[in-house]
Amino acid sequence: MIEIKNIHKTFAKQKVLDGVNIFARQGSSTALIGTSGGGKSVILKILLGLIEPDEGEVFIDNVKVSHREPGRTLSRIGMLFQGSALFDSLPVWQNICFKFLKGTEKLSRKDAKELAIQNLEKVGLNYKVANKFPADLSGGMKKRVALARAIVGNPKIILFDEPTTGLDPIMTNTINSLIREIVETMDVTTLTITHDISSVQQISDNVALLDSGRIRWEGKSEELKGSKDPYVFQFINGKHNGPINVN
Which domains does the chain have, with CATH numbers? Predict the structure, then answer.
């Protein structure tokens, strides 16, 4: 469960988030859409405990997120970064199980590698990929490795930051199908940041549109394209004129 309550955040006198409220029940999938620079990535950083809101509270499975103690909630969260964010100097299996090679959840190298291979199989990659390095992988394979890392350890929450950016249409559909399957089989709560409306309708049940730091529209993903809301209409049709400031 994700609960964002009345979040405000200002950087250098610029209001980035202005009273944002989002609730995602356990097992639900929510997409957060909106223009670049509208505050979506700031919400992710607040959820991860990387920055502190000026006002408001955030809860992950009823545990308050604190930038002073991010470890309290980070263990519950998996994260798929926009650029995959793999360590070039580490083989795939170490990238996937990096958090299990250090710290309190440490596994032996043998067990960590076996766990990595199990998660590679969940995203359609075989054991041979485990010993490869990121430089040896295509963009689609890197994204699937990053997805395997996001689900390792069976997190309760998974955050997706532009999961299909830079992928061709075939791989986009592959990643979306994997995400949908993971949501359904793992009973996880997901929050996805994306500009891809077709992906929204494939992987998300609920949608929130963020503009100028405020949630301007919320609804079901199937309601998006038929919505007469001026914010939604302008965004999904790429119109210059409308309530969204594109300057």
Answer: 1-76+156-247 (3.40.50.300), 87-154 (no CATH)
| Residue 107 near residue 152 (C-beta atoms within 8 A) | no
CB 186 within 8 A of CB 151: yes
Residue 85 identity:
A
Alpha helices in 105-247 (DSSP H): 109-122, 139-151, 169-186, 197-203, 230-237
CB 8 within 8 A of CB 56: yes
The single-letter code of the amino acid at 44 is L
Residue 68: alpha-carbon gap to chain centroid: 22
Q: Give the max Cα distance, the chain.
A: 58
pLDDT range class, residue 94, cuts 50, 70, 90: very high
What are the angstrom distances between the C-alpha of 246 and each of 32, 35, 194, 206, 211? Answer: 18, 8, 17, 25, 10
User: Has residue 195 got a pLDDT over 90?
Assistant: no
**Among positive and negative, which fits the CA dihedral 217, 219, 222, 226?**
negative
Q: Which amino acid is at 83?
A: G
**Which one-letter DSSP state was computed for residue 222?**
G
Contacts of 89 (CB under 8 A, 6+ apart): 133
- 44: which residues sit within 8 A by CB, 6+ positions away? 159, 161, 191, 193
Helix (H, G, I), strand (E, B) or coil at 68: coil
> What pTM does this model have?
0.91
Phi, psi of 177 (to 5 degrees): -65, -40
Q: Which pLDDT tens digit goes with each residue over 3-48?
A: 999 999 999 989 999 999 999 999 999 999 998 888 898 999 899 8
